[in-house]
Amino acid sequence: MTVDVLSFGCRLNTYEGEVMRGHARDAGLADTIIVNTCAVTAEAERQARQAIRRLARERPEAKIVVTGCAAQIAPEAWGTLPGVSRVLGNAEKLDAAHWQPDSPSAVSDIMTAKETAAHLVTEFAGRARAFVQVQQGCDHRCTFCIIPFGRGPSRSVPLGAILDQCRSLIGSGYQEIVLTGVDITSYGHDLPGQPPLGQMVRRLLALLPELPRLRLSSLDPCEIDEDLWKLIADEPRLLPHLHLSIQAGSDLILKRMKRRHLRADVLAVTERARKLRPGIAFGADLIAGFPTETEESFAETLALVAEADLTMLHVFPYSERSGTPAARMPSVPKAVRKERAARLRAAGSAAEARFDALHLGQTVRVLAETETRGHSEHFRPVRLTVAAVPGQIVTATVTGCDADGLLAA
């Protein structure tokens, strides 16, 4: 019995992929390929379609199940692709009942979803770190983003279920857990007492003294609560790496994106975090070539990389999403978007090189992902010259750095 999962996009999809793998195996499905799609960009959708067509050619006997955000938004289009046996929505894909051998395609109205069911995952195939969903959906309406219509409203997982999932993973040997969701800084508003993300994380760490490392996925700069700030300052198990959903460095563009922060807010967050945790690393999501972006407004985004000392950039050329307000705004030529994205990536590479050079001769604790590769506390890639046991945390000294990250022995 073979169940393969191909996930595109976010870490939440990675977590959900393992939930689906478990449901499919429990249902006795054989020779099944689950394609978990992403709708963030047209390129993500293109890659998923290309993969489905390739799989249909290479494994014509396999049943292909398509799900994820792109499938939720346009199920009919995905159901007509070669080899696809069924399409499941983002709610249905996590329901074991929809994984029975004779279950049909099913995609419900995700905007009516009221809660997020808890699932116990004990293994992430081929991965040294584990992911735990703490939140689902999004209540915001950024003008470029289609994801709320693929994920539905924001809803939180109660602490007890998160705790059970973490304990299960720790029992399976995982030493680093990443808390993930669509908009995790909105955590808790729908739970009794409305506990914010920081309170949940504080309680989680207090109840899990056996967990060596906890990492957070993407954070909204305007929603970091005081409990979380205290943890950044005082809790070494909360790793010194924050990934911020920034998108742009121009106030005018941020307003047109309908973001809830401005440029000064990003600088204030990074400055405060560095004072509380010297040496902390920042990742950032940035969009190049958003509609109406001029060379001057792009220059503000490019300058923010240096001013905020953003180290690891996820850069996306703007991609029109049908039905979003931004898709109706005056567009920037695609060639210009691509060129600006390349300039941002070059700035990110230079920032990474500067950050890595600061760690020459320093000791790092590396989560080994293979015998010779892993990631440091700051989520920098590390190549080890001494063999390590995958899944274990090893202490090493940085001996060099290059375009691929750190070298350590």
From TrEMBL:
Specify the species: Acidisoma cellulosilyticum
The family database entries (Pfam families) matched by this protein are listed as: Radical_SAM, UPF0004
* Alphabetical keyword list: 4Fe-4S, Iron, Iron-sulfur, Metal-binding, S-adenosyl-L-methionine, Transferase
Q: Which GO terms describe its molecular function?
A: 4 iron, 4 sulfur cluster binding; metal ion binding; tRNA (N(6)-L-threonylcarbamoyladenosine(37)-C(2))-methylthiotransferase activity
**Ranges for domain MTTase N-terminal:** 1-103
Q: Where is the Radical SAM core domain?
A: 124-354
What's the protein called, per UniProt?
A: tRNA (N(6)-L-threonylcarbamoyladenosine(37)-C(2))-methylthiotransferase MtaB
**Cofactor list:** [4Fe-4S] cluster
